[in-house]
Structure formats: C-alpha cells, structure tokens
Fold this protein.
Amino acid sequence: MPGLLKSCSRLSFPVSLASLFLAATLTAQSTGPLTPPPANGPAPSAPAVTAPKPAPKKVEESPISHEPPAMPPEQIIRRFADKEVELKKVLGSYTWTQYFLLQTLDSDGVPDGEYHLESDILFDPEGRRFEKVTYAPANTLKRISLGQNDLDDLKKIQPFAFTGDELNKYNITYVGRQKVDDLSTYVFDVVPKTIEKNQRYFQGRLWVDDHDLQIVKTYGKAVPDIVTKKKEDLFARFTTYRENLFGDLWFPTYTHTDDTLRFSTGPVHILVTVKYTNYKRFGSTTKIGVGTVAPPQ
C-alpha cells in the first residue's frame, strides 16, 4: 500500500488479500442467497473528504435458537475449516477488484479525514500477482495512521477467520442455529486459547451455512490490541459477508466497520468499507483482464 500518514494514534486494519492466495481453478455458478449490502456509487473525482457512506443494508436475522445441529459440532468445524483451506488455494488463480475506504468521523458524525484506495489484483505475464492502483486520492487522515501490522491483519484476519492447520489455536463453541436472510446457519463463537507474542488471532463469531458447511458471515476483531509506552495499535470490530459465486465456495465480498477506538488521546470514531468484486479466473492461456466473470454483486 502507498505511504500513509503518521499521527498520534495507530489503527490496525488490513486492506489487500493479495499475499494470501495460492493456485487452483473453478467455473462460475450462481450467487448465494445471502443479501449483500448495496453497492457504493461512483468514485469521487476529487481528494476532498466525502460524505459518510450509508450504512449497509441490514441483513434479516431471526433470534438464535438452541436447537442442536444435524451432526456433531466437531464434524461441522472440521468441514468448514477444510473449505477455508480450499478457498485460499482457489483464490490463488483469481483476479479481482478491490475497494477500500476508511473515514474518521467527528463528534457530529461528519467525516474529518479519509483514506481511499481502489485497485485491481492481477497477474503479470509470468503469473506473478501484483496490485494495480486505479484510484488513490490524497490521504487526509489526521487522527490515526495505518502501519504494516494493520495491513497484514486486514489480509489475514478479516476475510478469513482461520484454516484447518490453525484449529488447535482456538476454542470453538457451538451457540445454536440462526436464520440469516434465506440461509439456515450454525453459529459458533471463536476465542484463541492462548495469546503468543507476535501472533495475530481472530476473536468473534462465525455463521456457517448448514447445507454447504462453509462460513458465510464473520463478526469480530483481530486480537490482541497492542499498547505500549510508545504506541497504541487498537483493532476495530468488523463484519464480513460472503457470497456463493463459484461452484460450492463462498467468496468474501464485503466488509464493514462502524466502531469507536478509545485511544489514550481520546476516542476516534471510524467507518470502513471494503469490497471485493469482479472475481475472474486467471489461467496460463488467459490474458490479463479476461476470464470467468462472477455474477453481478
């Protein structure tokens, strides 16, 4: 990501998925029933701070019932963790378009700074992944800054909770069943067993489709917060939605944050939108920009 402002406070937030993905192939299918939030309008033409973005469309959710699952919870956990591994491999052969907007809001809810970046995640002719920035107005953040730890967390924590080889790091508790839009889901709470030095973890809640046994929604934050005498890295709570775009895999398409980070210098209200669109499969005989296009999102 390009250079970012230095300021009195630090915000931990990830922005690019590029470093996560390996290689595989799939073909297009239909969009899943989970209703995504509405698309944003066209990008602003000037670097001035824009009006706050409207809240995402509220997904209809019924109360959580304590009905037992159709199979042992341990089996469900293993199934969706295995699918996470498969998804990461599949994304290694896809390109996509990425939209990121972070705004700080004053006490009246009016934006007083923003960082906006739009880019395409592509492959060069040799098959190496790179990020092509398509829109990057001036960074006007004044009360927070983004660092490398922040960006790394957004890559690894928000789009994907964890993978099969990381299951032993977490206590995962079955909560119950919940209807999310047209989906019937199993709900799990996730807490790291221990916090090791220089390691990042997810803590929060997962919604797993009871048919495909895949994560369709996550809510939580990256932990731990990092507070020392010299710096404060505080991590916002986020919600990530996925859609069934290809085969039986659910791709992350939207992340939203509306949270207040309480620094020692004072609270900072932030609003963040991250969108992943235009997924295309890239193959050895496929030119950049041509591939299997995902259904409209």
